Amino acid sequence: MPTTPASATSTPSCTTAPSRPVKRITDCPYGDCPAVYDTGGGDLIIRAYTDVDPAHAAAVGPLPDGELLGRVPRAMLLEAAHRLKLEGEAATR
Question: Fewest Cβ atoms closer than 10 Å to its Cβ: which of 23, 56, 58, 81?
Answer without folding.
Answer: 58
